[in-house]
Amino acid sequence: MKLAEKAKMHYTSLGAIERSEKNATLKNISRLAKALEVEIADLFKSNIGVSRKMELDDIVILLKDKSSKDLRLAKRTIKAMFEK
């Protein structure tokens, strides 16, 4: 699910906020925090943690409906990518 949809915002509004063309309202800040499953204060901290969580969430979404066989293949592939 895309962030704007999950936050119940129009994608153009979210894009304008991301590009600093528009300021986020308190309501939108609250919606974004809820959609990202973080506290509002976390949105104002370094975004490294939020970005990491979003990346991990995207991976989970990609794998969510896959078969056990596909999950094992994905696990082996990821493991092989990062082994030294």
How would you describe this structure to a colleague?
The protein has 84 residues and is mainly α. It folds into 2 domains: 1-45, 434 Repressor (Amino-terminal Domain), CATH 1.10.260; 48-84, no CATH class. Helices cover 64% and strands 0% of the residues. It contains 5 helices and no strands. The longest helix is centred in the middle third of the chain and has 16 residues, at 48-63. The protein is elongated and about 45 Å long. It starts with a helix and ends with a helix. The mean pLDDT is 88.
**Termini separation:** 34 Å
Q: Biggest β-sheet: count, sense, barrel?
A: none
| CATH topology name of the largest domain | 434 Repressor (Amino-terminal Domain)
As for the number of domains, it is 2
Q: How many extended strands?
A: 0
CATH architect. name of the largest domain: Orthogonal Bundle
Name the shape in a single word: elongated
Which CATH top level class of the largest domain fits?
Answer: Mainly Alpha
Number of helices: 5
Structural class: mainly alpha
Radius of gyration: 16 Å
**CATH H-level superfamily title of the largest domain:** lambda repressor-like DNA-binding domains
Q: List the secondary-structure elements in sequence, H or E.
A: HHHHH
The overall pLDDT average reads 88
Helix share, percent: 55-70%
Q: What proportion strand?
A: under 5%
Residue windows where pLDDT falls under 50 for at least 5 positions: none
Helix-strand blueprint:
Elements: H1 3-6, H2 11-18, H3 26-36, H4 48-63, H5 68-82
Quick summary:
By secondary structure, the protein is an all-alpha fold. It contains five helices and no strands.
